[in-house]
Specification:
Radius of gyration: 22 Å
CATH class of the largest domain: Alpha Beta
Number of domains: 3
Structural class: alpha+beta
Number of helices: 7
CATH topology of the largest domain: Rossmann fold
CATH architecture of the largest domain: 3-Layer(aba) Sandwich
Helix content: 10-25%
Length: 426
């Protein structure tokens, strides 16, 4: 058997209606990942719903439906083979209320495509998405300027959007020199898999080629095992199956693990019985793999989304308080001491309270701009002390960056994002 191609998790983000799902659906169809027959059915369905041209979007949405019913484990993610990688495509919803899934998606991604419609250009959420990608540690980014057909494949329109995004990238601290901009139409199939006949001025890669231009992600396999639980299924004949992405380390059957916080908050011990990915049993899995596993001695009541499966002899910490560096992205007023929003950390959601605002930093230089500020507002970067109102598993950035990042949400919006720089264990 040929050595498997390295797995690469790629998230598509962007404002609602800018055509993410359509780009992905088109990509899947033209790459042969979706049979002609099925595409025909989706097309009929789209027409029946009065949504002509939505068949490609339905490709991913059909999976969302199946995902909600919890029918199979690996349909939330679509697989695609390129010359270099086995790509797992994560479609992160663009709706405001879906940002929590988008955060989970981004925190699992090695690379991202930001989809921006050529006719609508940069939207308020475009900036939020970029901040999130950056804070979540997604190092590699490409921009898809989609819907080029709507602007008659006009190079000037492409350049205008490119310019706007370039200045936006600078404000969030991403070097635009390193970001490729692609001119595409998901609906018409320009530069998705096949080079477009309609834009002779465009010399860049197609969407499919761009996957292979990304660098292979380095796997943090030397760190202790950490697998945040995304979902827990009950599967006939197997039992309880937690599913998620292994963030760091290596997992093998027979390995002793502890589930933190678990329903007790003190952790639950178990042993890995079996591991499967895309319906195949694995002798081992490692950082970057999305897997379903069965743990000896662990039932449905013991484990839930947001728990972290850890190496038993090197567990993560359940924290009583922690110090973090945060960036305030989008708060309607100001953040003061006592504020208690919901923190999204790996796959967990826990309300946490700001107990101290220690320093405000100059975002450009990182130097201290003000000690003990009274409040924080949009655009501020600060060092703060936080107290979780529940059991939260977290690690310091210096120990394990993959388990240190979080986003802060309130009233349906992402207000800030950050990383844990110090902590006190419970």
């Amino acid at each position: 058997m040929a050595k498997e191609k390295p797995n690469m998790n790629v998230v598509f983000v962007g404002h609602v209606d800018h055509g993410k799902s359509t780009c992905i659906g088109r990509l899947m169809f033209e790459s042969g990942a979706i049979p002609e027959q099925q595409m025909k059915k989706l097309k009929e369905e789209a027409e029946k719903h009065g949504k002509v041209g939505f068949e490609f979007a339905f490709v991913m949405d059909k999976y969302k439906e199946e995902r909600e019913r919890g029918v199979t484990i690996d349909l939330a993610y679509q697989k695609l083979m390129t010359d270099k990688f086995q790509i797992t495509v994560i479609d992160a919803p663009g709706h405001k209320d879906f940002v929590k899934n988008m955060i989970t998606g981004a925190s699992q991604a090695d690379a991202a495509f930001l989809v921006v419609a050529a006719d609508a250009g940069v939207q308020p959420q475009t900036k939020e998405h970029l901040w999130l990608l950056r804070t979540m540690g997604v190092e590699q980014l490409a921009v898809l300027i989609n819907k080029m057909d709507v602007v008659n494949y006009d190079e000037a329109k492409f350049n205008k959007v490119k310019e706007d995004i370039t200045s936006l990238l600078r404000t969030v601290g991403i070097n635009p020199e390193k970001v490729p901009f692609l001119a595409v139409s998901g609906l018409k199939g320009d530069n998705i898999v096949n080079k477009s006949e309609n834009m002779s001025w465009y010399k860049g890669p197609t969407l499919k080629e761009q996957f292979d231009n990304f660098e292979e992600p380095k796997k943090p396999i030397d760190l202790p095992l950490r697998m945040p639980v995304q979902d827990v299924y009950e599967i006939t004949g197997i039992g309880t199956v937690p599913v998620g992405k292994i963030e760091t380390g290596i997992m093998k059957p027979g390995q002793k693990v502890v589930i933190l916080p678990g329903r007790t908050g003190k952790g639950i011990e178990g042993e890995i019985k079996s591991i499967e990915m895309h319906h195949e049993q694995l002798p081992q899995a490692e950082a970057g793999d999305n897997v379903g596993i069965n743990i000896r001695g662990v039932g449905k009541k013991d484990i839930a989304r947001g728990d972290v499966i850890c190496q038993a002899d090197k567990p993560a910490t359940v924290v009583s308080e922690f110090t973090a560096q945060i960036a305030v992205i989008n708060h309607p007023t100001v953040i003061a001491k006592g504020y208690t929003p919901v923190f999204h950390v790996h796959t967990a959601q826990v309300p946490c309270q700001f107990i101290e605002l220690q320093k405000k930093l100059d975002p450009k230089s990182g130097q201290v701009a003000e000690e003990n500020p009274d409040f924080l507002k949009n655009g501020d970067v600060a060092i703060v002390k936080i107290k979780p109102m529940g059991n939260l598993v977290l690690e310091k950035q210096s120990d394990n960056p993959h388990m240190a990042r979080f986003a802060i949400r309130d009233a349906g919006a992402t207000v800030a994002a950050g990383v844990c720089i110090d902590l006190v264990a419970k």
